[in-house]
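Q&A log
Question type: sequence-to-structure
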Amino acid sequence: MSTPSPIRIAAVLSTEYRGRLMSHARQVNFPEGSRIFDEGGRADSFWIVRSGTVTLEIPMPGHRAAPVESLGPGELVGWSWLFPPYVWQLSAEAMTPVRAYEFDGPTVRLLMDADPAFGSAVGHWVGRVLAVRLQQTRTRLLDLYAPRTGATR
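Response status: OK
Response body:
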């Protein structure tokens, strides 16, 4: 039995705030292998996965992109829409066919500004997502690049 992710939208936002946010969603689909966004691009949208798997990656010059995390249903894809200069810090790819809810970042920021309690709830949700992803990224990079021990001279 698996436990629900503490950063999935249903675990973090109240029914009222989820409803308010979801009233601004539109349904989109990404075919397997499609790029959802690339590091350095303009971040003006975000998504909540309905079905499928999205992989977050860190581009590595001269190497293949390093996968950081796989995201599934109920999880947030993209946080850079919330913080100036609104530029993607990672890249994302659909690893399977993905159905998602898409949100316009500037519209959601206006909603957050208009209702400070709603804004605080959404901001705390995104903050929790960031904290978890930062730790996962750190762990992944250590797995990839930490010096190996064992052989001594």
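Response note: The beta strands are 26-30, 35-37, 45-51, 54-58, 66-71, 76-77, 91-94, 98-104.
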